[in-house]
Amino acid sequence: MPESLCPACRHVKKIVSGTGSQFWLCQLTLTDRRYPKYPPQPIVQCQGFAAAEPPPGKPQPQDPRA
Ligand code: SF4
After folding, report:
1. Of the residues 33, 43, 63, which should be mutated to test ligand 1's pocket, given the most ligand atoms within 8 Å of the CB?
2. Tens digits of per-residue pLDDT, 26-64?
3. Scanning 5, 13, 20, 61, which has its CA 20 to 30 A from the CA of 49?
4. Is 46 in the pocket of ligand 1 (CB under 6 A)?
5. Which residues 6+ apart lie within 8 Å of 17 measured at CB?
6. Closest by CA position to 7, among listed 57, 47, 44
7. Which of 13, 15, 24, 26 to mutate to test the pocket of ligand 1 (most atoms within 8 A of CB)?
8. C-alpha of residue 44 to centroid of ligand 1, in Å
9. In sequence order, what DSSP letters do the residues of 3-25 get, joined into one string?
10. Ligand 1 in contact with 39 (CB < 6 A)?
11. What is the residue extent of each domain of the chain?
12. CB–CB of 28/35 below 8 Å?
C-alpha cells in the first residue's frame, strides 16, 4: 500500500477508538466540503495537503501541488 499524505499533513487529527483502531480526521472538512471527514486511505495526492512540522530527523514529504 502506498504511503498516505494524511499523517504528515497539518490539517489532520489522529483519532484512536476505544478498541485501538486509528482514523485520520481531515479538519479541512469544517470549512471545505470537498474534503471528507475521514478520507479513504491511502491519500497519495491532495490539493489541501500542507506539510506539518516534521519531527527532528524525519524527512519532509513532497508537496504534490509543487
Ligand atoms: S487535507 Fe488532504 S492530506 Fe491533509 S488530512 Fe485532509 S485529506 Fe489528508
Report:
1. 43
2. 999 999 999 999 999 999 999 999 999 876 676 666 666
3. 20
4. yes
5. 23
6. 44
7. 26
8. 10
9. PPSGGGBTTEEEEE-TTS-EEEE
10. yes
11. 1-53
12. yes
CA distance 11 to 57: 21
Ligand 1 within 6 A of CB of 8: no
pLDDT at 66 over 60: no
For residue 1, name the pLDDT band (cuts at 50, 70, 90): low
Question: Residue 51 in 3-state DSSP?
Answer: strand
Q: What is the pTM of this model?
A: 0.78
